[in-house]
């Protein structure tokens, strides 16, 4: 039995990674997780300069999940290259760097900086607001998504994963747009936009008013979108959105995901990824699957 998966030419030991922003760069999880047993570590979003993020409060619990408006706070690419890459290189796992930006130039600058760094893949977060287009996310317009993909591909030495926003009319259209732009893989879904009001204070719970909803409550929506995307593109799909158990992860794989990413569950069960890795192996033995690839997208 073989748990290895190959995503855009990069071989992972198993199909499990973590969702950007839920795991830092792994250092704070080493008491709970053996990083050698993760297929890949996906880092928190990295920008060309340090970002302070949004004002507080910026996290709230919701029924079956959470909302966040952290605003991609990060120390910037210089600190990341000096501190986080050397730390992760100590482990037998692949490194996926999540890249964020406010303009095409921002993204390209980070991608160019990472071209000569010892990292395996880049995940481009196109749910960032495009400042030059009045704040609409790059990932909400198929033309903008295709153009940003083409732009970063010019500078990228590593395979590019485009992370898709679910806040669109047609996820299939967005997946096809980034594939046309040269994406090597797609990951989805990012968070759904939501809002919470404190009825006693008669005020928004988050300072930002809106935030990204994640966690088990969004899982069925994510499975549907992964299925739709996987059936219109030929590049690998990394599925995420509310995965909290091996069963949730396997559901994504059967829907068409070649790998899965675990996010919010890391907050309420820091060791959850280890349980998911074990659970996928048990399922493969029980159901007679020789490889993960044999499971991908078999439900049509």
UniProtKB/TrEMBL annotation:
The reply to whether Flavoprotein figures as a keyword in the UniProt entry is yes
The cofactors required by this protein are: FMN
Identify the pathway.
Pyrimidine metabolism; UMP biosynthesis via de novo pathway; orotate from (S)-dihydroorotate (NAD(+) route): step 1/1
Catalyzes what? (S)-dihydroorotate + A = orotate + AH2; (S)-dihydroorotate + NAD(+) = orotate + NADH + H(+)
**Keywords linked to the UniProt accession:** Cytoplasm, Flavoprotein, FMN, NAD, Oxidoreductase, Pyrimidine biosynthesis
Q: One Pfam match, by short name?
A: DHO_dh
* Dihydroorotate dehydrogenase catalytic domain span: 4-284
CDD domains, per this entry? Answer: DHOD_1B_like
EC number(s) per entry: 1.3.-.-
Which Gene Ontology cellular component annotation is one that this UniProt entry carries? cytoplasm
InterPro entries for this protein: Aldolase_TIM, DHO_dehydrogenase, DHOD_1B, Dihydroorotate_DH_1, Dihydroorotate_DH_1_2, Dihydroorotate_DH_cat, Dihydroorotate_DH_CS, Dihydroorotate_DH_I
Molecular-function annotations in GO: dihydroorotate dehydrogenase (NAD+) activity
* SUPFAM superfamilies xref list: FMN-linked oxidoreductases
Binding residue positions for substrate: 44, 68-72, 125, 190-191
* Function field: Catalyzes the conversion of dihydroorotate to orotate with NAD(+) as electron acceptor.
Q: Which protein are we looking at?
A: Dihydroorotate dehydrogenase
């Amino acid at each position: 039995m073989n748990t290895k998966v190959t995503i855009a030419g990069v071989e992972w030991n198993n199909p499990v990674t973590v969702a950007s922003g839920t795991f830092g760069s792994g250092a704070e999880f080493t008491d709970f997780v053996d990083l050698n047993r993760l297929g890949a570590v996906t880092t928190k979003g990295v920008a060309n300069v340090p970002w302070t993020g949004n004002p507080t409060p910026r996290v709230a619990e919701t029924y079956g999940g959470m909302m966040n408006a952290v605003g991609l706070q990060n120390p910037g690419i210089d600190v990341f290259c000096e501190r986080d890459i050397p730390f992760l290189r100590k482990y037998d796992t692949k490194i996926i760097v999540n890249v964020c930006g406010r303009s095409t130039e921002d993204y390209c600058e980070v991608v160019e900086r990472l071209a000569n760094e010892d990292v395996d893949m880049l995940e481009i977060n196109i749910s960032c607001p495009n400042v030059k287009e009045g704040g609409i996310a790059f990932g909400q317009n198929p033309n903008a998504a295709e153009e940003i993909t083409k732009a970063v591909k010019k500078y990228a030495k590593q395979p590019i994963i485009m992370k898709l926003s679910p806040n669109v009319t047609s996820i299939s259209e967005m997946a096809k747009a980034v594939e046309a732009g040269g994406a090597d893989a797609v990951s989805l879904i990012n968070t759904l936009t939501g809002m919470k009001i404190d009825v006693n204070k008669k005020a928004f719970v988050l300072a930002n008013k809106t935030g990204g909803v994640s966690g088990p409550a969004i899982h069925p929506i994510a499975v549907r979108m992964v299925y739709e995307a996987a059936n219109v593109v030929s590049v690998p799909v990394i599925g995420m959105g509310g995965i909290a158990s091996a069963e949730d992860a396997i559901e994504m794989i059967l829907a068409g995901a070649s790998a899965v990413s675990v996010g919010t569950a890391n907050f309420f069960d820091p060791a959850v990824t280890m349980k998911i890795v074990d659970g996928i192996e048990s399922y493969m033995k029980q159901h007679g699957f020789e490889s993960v690839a044999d499971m991908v997208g078999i439900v049509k």
